[in-house]
Design goal:
alpha+beta; Beta-lactamase; 2 domains; 5-stranded mixed beta sheet; 30% helix; globular
């Protein structure tokens, strides 16, 4: 196991950075004005809203509106996963564990999600590692968790945002179905799944579509013409050790045997990933990638306990680095897909403060989605004077939308904030507009 901290040095550097910030903070009268603005907003009053505004230099919670009430955080849960990953793994992510037994190399997964995952920088490290070995290869599946997280919707099994979890993800744990607008041909990637695609003529849906059977990797095409721009859909695959061995064989061109009995006193070695960890953190935070978040939490569990179970990492953090949060979160997965998750604005801003101290504002600006520019807030929170001022993480489920991150006022002062909006009906654009008004007010007055 390898855990990287270096927290003391990072904390000292961050405090120096903070001390150089503008000393201006919201005066008491302005704080009352901001609180009144939020409390009297008709959109916020039609739902459940929590808000916390924190000054990192003064180490003070400036404005708190139901800040210690619990809300469904949705993908704001990824902030806990990000901090866990930074504390446990940092910039060294284990790709694979391996050991030798006679003429056989036994491999097992770490939960690492970057192998042949298209959105990340290209790397064929696993393929090259297997090809370079002159040993027989055997795969040992040590996955100890469920494919779905607690409280996930079974009905979402074939939608791109809910891929299954496993020990050795390949290709993002999805198959990409591409339909040609002229020939009505469907291409499946990885190609292995082409043989598992079957026609199921259906005229009730006028355009071409591909879907998966609920219980196995059988895919269907309704035979209808695709849109003139073609068709592309990512569909989660149903995972098991046998399929993993098959995909590893296709990837490496070498047979991969099954290893069912763990070796006693095996000397496991670790191959570390060559894709920069920040590339993974960046993509997770920009587009709110559930697959990466879930696998990162499994990886962290493997590092601290040698067991690929998400709740092991959660327990480790809640007893350690996150033990002093203002309100103990109810935390069950890495992505926030589960409605079992509950958290408070006060605890979210504390986690953000930890990230700030550990990595600094420049790193945050390079990783988080940027208002008006990138990621899930590309179309919102643009700088009133053309300069970015919001770096944040969204969290959305039906009837819930949260936004937590950092806002930099015109004065240069940085604040940490958390908005949590639950149980509204209709579009999330209504709370977005109200939050945008509040954040712009902070920009001008902070």
């Amino acid at each position: 196991m390898r855990i990287r901290y270096g927290f003391g040095l990072c904390l000292m550097m961050s405090l120096v950075m903070l001390s150089c910030s503008s000393p201006n903070i919201l005066v008491k009268g302005k704080r009352k004005e901001l609180k009144k603005q939020i409390e009297q907003d008709p959109i916020f009053n039609a739902q459940f809203t929590g808000f916390a505004l924190y000054d990192p230099l003064a180490d003070s919670l400036l404005v708190a509106i139901q800040a210690h009430h619990y809300f469904t955080p949705a993908s704001n849960t990824k902030l806990l996963t990000l901090y866990t990953s930074l504390r446990v793994m940092g910039d060294s992510m284990p790709l694979l564990h391996y050991t030798m037994s006679g003429d056989t190399m036994i491999i097992k997964g770490t939960g690492y999600p970057g192998t042949e995952y298209a959105p990340l920088p290209e790397s064929h490290q696993l393929q090259e590692f297997l090809l370079a070995s002159d040993k027989t290869i055997a795969y040992q599946d040590d996955f100890m968790d469920d494919a779905f997280g607690p409280g996930w919707s079974w009905a979402d099994f074939q939608w791109y945002y809910q891929p299954e979890r496993n020990a050795m993800p390949l290709f993002g744990n999805v198959v990409v179905a591409q339909g040609d607008s002229l020939s009505r041909q469907v291409r499946m990637s990885p190609p292995y799944f082409t043989q598992l695609l079957y026609p199921m003529p259906d005229t009730t849906h006028p355009e071409g579509m591909v879907w998966r059977d609920q219980t196995e990797n059988i895919f269907y095409y309704n035979g209808q013409p695709f849109d003139h721009q073609g068709y592309e859909r990512e569909i989660p695959i149903h995972l098991n050790a046998s399929l993993t061995r098959t995909l590893l064989k296709d990837l490496s061109g070498k047979p991969v045997l099954a290893r069912h009995q763990p070796l006693e006193d095996a000397n496991w070695q670790t191959l570390y990933a060559d894709i920069p960890a920040d590339s993974i953190y960046h993509h997770m935070m920009q587009v709110s990638d559930n697959f990466l978040a879930e696998q990162l939490l499994l990886m962290a569990a493997g590092v601290v306990t040698d067991t690929l179970q998400a709740d092991k990492a959660i327990e480790y953090m809640l007893k350690g680095d996150l033990s002093d949060l203002p309100d103990r979160p109810q935390w069950v997965d890495g992505s926030g897909l589960s409605r079992y998750n509950l958290n408070t604005p006060a605890s979210i801003v504390q986690v953000l403060q930890y990230i700030y101290r550990l990595k600094g504002l420049d790193w945050i600006k390079s990783i988080f989605a940027v208002g008006g520019i990138s990621g899930t807030i590309k179309n919102w929170y643009a700088g009133p004077e053309g300069t970015p001022y919001v770096w944040a993480k969204t969290g959305s489920l039906l009837n819930n939308h949260c936004l937590s991150g950092f806002v930099q006022a015109r004065s240069g002062k940085v604040y940490v904030f958390s908005f949590m909006n639950n149980h509204f009906t209709g579009s999330a654009n209504q709370p977005r507009r109200s939050m945008q008004r509040v954040l712009e007010w902070i920009y001008w007055n902070g």
